[in-house]
Design goal:
Helices cover 49% and strands 16% of the residues. It contains 13 helices and 11 strands. Helix 7 links the parallel strand 6 and strand 7.
């Protein structure tokens, strides 16, 4: 009798100590997983979520095209065809106009100010309103440092040099260049190199030097221009089908957001660390590193402001975010001015 009681107690102990069965989910990125910095980013987020939930949530991350083409990820998450995605927010601008502003605001805030506005200044609450009708939860999860101005096989000395130029450029920056006479188009990341090599496009922008170097653009373009006026900071995000999101506990939802904030901090450090070596390697490949002339930047700023004003008139959430972000930059700007050190 005593032995039976001990066996029963041991069995109960083993059942109690058994680990919880993990809930498994698939996530598809719009990027290949081998792309520097942004490729591993959702993988690291999934690892953090698994760790912080004690193994309760296990997310398998898939690269571009594993389930659907890259530009169809948002629609697939919205319908529930896939539960989660990882994106550059600006890719969904045709469906969610404010995504253009968050993905790339020309002459916009620095990464640290963009981060503060998003999580402390009300930004996330504004943009979520645009995602709600599509049944998608958005969590900003990767903050990209200022990008390069782009790769060109001609010199850019005046804004006239943009006229007739076939350029891959995304977001509001593309609309600004179109106003100045460029022929702009959006090409998926994995197709940019071939498009530039074959002459389908004359110029391209993609990201910061670390990523651009990995794509090999230095092999097919001779000029690399700065600054990245079109994207001083930009966001990649985790998107989750809202029914899936609502199935998580409040603690699990909090963990997912906090895992993204940890992801942001990690990736900012990694990106800053990598840029100097990348620029040196690009220069060693024979590419000329240049800056756009100040008069060209002034014209680009004017064109960008006109584009954003027009977009704000078309969409109320874009307008709300635009006004909120500008007001936030103005409000916190004094801090930077007071702390600026003489050179």
């Amino acid at each position: 009798m005593k032995a039976r009681l001990m066996s029963a107690a041991l069995a109960a102990t083993m059942l109690t100590a058994a680990p919880a069965v993990a809930d498994s989910y698939d996530l598809q990125s719009v990027f290949g997983l081998q792309v520097p910095s942004i490729g591993p980013s959702p993988v690291k987020w999934a690892e953090r979520v698994k760790l912080m939930t004690g193994g309760e949530i296990d997310i398998t991350v898939h690269g571009a095209g594993d389930f659907v083409p890259p530009f169809e990820v948002f629609g697939a998450v919205s319908t529930g065809a896939i539960p989660m995605g990882f994106d550059w927010i600006g890719y969904w601008a045709s469906t969610i106009p404010v995504a253009n502003l968050i993905g790339s605001m020309p002459f916009g805030p620095s990464p640290e100010v963009a981060n503060a506005w998003m999580f402390e200044g009300g930004g996330l609450e504004i943009i979520q309103k645009a995602y709600d009708p599509h049944g998608v939860k958005v969590i900003p999860c990767h903050l990209v440092v200022p990008e390069a101005g782009g790769w060109f096989n001609k010199d850019i000395e005046t804004v006239e040099d943009f006229k007739g130029l076939n350029m891959r450029i995304a977001g509001l920056g593309g609309k600004a260049l179109a106003r100045l006479g460029a022929n702009t188009q959006l090409v998926p990341a994995g197709e940019i190199f071939v498009s530039l090599e074959t002459g389908r496009i004359d110029a391209t922008e993609f990201s910061a030097p670390q990523l651009d170097l990995g794509f090999g653009f230095q092999k097919v373009a001779k000029n690399y221009y700065f600054p990245g006026w079109h994207q001083p900071s930009s966001w990649d995000s985790i998107i989750i089908n809202m029914d899936v999101w609502n199935g998580f506990s409040e603690d699990q939802q909090t963990i997912m957001v906090e895992a993204c904030r940890a992801n942001i901090a990690y990736n900012l450090g990694d990106q800053i660390h990598q840029q100097a070596e990348a620029i040196a390697a690009i220069r060693e490949a024979g590419v000329e590193i240049k800056r756009f002339p100040d008069p060209v930047l002034a014209e680009l700023r004017a064109a960008s402001r006109a584009v954003m004003d027009e977009e704000a008139e078309k969409d109320p959430i874009f307008k709300e975010a635009y006004e909120s972000l500008n007001a936030y930059v103005e409000r916190v700007g004094e801090w930077g001015q007071l702390q600026a050190l003489p050179r």
